[in-house]
Design brief:
With 213 residues, this protein is an alpha/beta fold. It is 58% helix and 11% strand. Bound molecules: CO-5-methoxybenzimidazolylcobamide.
């Protein structure tokens, strides 16, 4: 669809205004928010990822594209979130230490909020002790760890070990995800769950909550 292609193009150009205008126009045309997300924003980010890999663009270009993506997601957020009246549970979420990627993590946060969870988003580059501190502070049910780099994915195990050392490992369910993460890796580090994308993360969290309740 022409408009969704335009959104993808504007994202690749790093145009916040272009993406915002495109997303607003698509919503006015009653295109579903999920379709705009997948076929406009995520399609554009996929192209950026390929170009980055092939050295056709560099970090500044990727950064402006991510900013444009986040700007589009802010507009879509209310549409993606169906107002959850009662809290489904508490989730502490963050991208692990050393890792600055937040687009996927933000998407997970949105989907969880949409499923009625209270999300405490610690942001990016989050050290293990911060996860421990927040879990204790809010008495979280679930912790969501995101990592996009093969060099930072092992930090997830550090976080799990920090929960063990703090004596709270049995009190919290750990879910991991991110591009380099696999189910095998999740099992290896003794995480409780692996989710391949944001909607799976939200489904898993919903199932966990039903089991707890
Ligand atoms: Co980075 N980067 N980056 N980058 N970057 C990747 C990840 C890379 C694959 C690009 C490439 O080479 N093709 C590569 C990693 C290679 C590797 O480790 N194997 C890479 C690299 C190398 C780097 C730097 C080292 C580059 C450098 O400096 N030389 C550097 C590292 C900085 C750091 O973190 N310390 C770097 C920097 C950056 C920017 C800052 C410029 C920017 C991030 C900006 C931001 O996030 N605000 C950036 C970006 C944007 C990317 C790519 C292009 C896109 C990532 C993205 O936003 N995707 C990425 C290439 C790619 O992924 N194709 C790349 C869209 C998003 C919706 O998908 O985040 O995968 P994703 O999330 C998915 C799933 O993974 C999952 O759900 C989402 C979908 O629903 N998911 C979860 C994610 N977290 C989850 C948690 C869950 C469950 C599911 O449960 C809790």
């Amino acid at each position: 669809m022409e408009l969704l292609n335009q959104i993808s193009e504007k994202l690749q150009q790093g145009s916040v205004e272009g993406v915002e205008n495109g997303v607003n126009k698509a919503l006015e045309e009653n295109i579903e928010a999920e379709k705009i997300l997948h076929e406009g924003l995520m399609a554009g980010m996929k192209v950026i990822g390929e170009k980055f890999k092939n050295d056709e663009i560099f970090v500044p270009g990727v950064l402006v594209a991510a900013r444009a993506m986040n700007a589009g997601m802010v507009i879509l957020k209310p549409k993606l979130i169906e107002s959850g009246v009662e809290s489904a549970g508490k989730v502490v979420l963050g991208t692990v230490k050393g890792d600055l990627h937040d687009v996927g993590k933000n998407l997970v946060a949105m989907m969880l909020e949409g499923a009625g969870f209270e999300v405490y988003d610690l942001g990016t580059d989050v050290p293990a002790e911060k996860f421990v501190e927040k879990v204790k502070e809010v008495d979280a049910d679930i912790v969501g760890l995101s990592a996009l780099l093969t060099t930072t994915m092992n930090e997830m195990e550090t976080v799990i070990k920090a929960f063990e050392e703090a004596g709270i490992r049995d009190e919290v369910i750990v879910m991991v995800g991110g591009a380099p993460i696999t189910r095998e890796f999740a099992e290896e580090i003794s995480a409780d769950h692996y989710a391949k994308d944001a909607s799976e993360a939200s489904n898993i969290a919903g199932n966990i909550k039903r089991k707890i309740a």
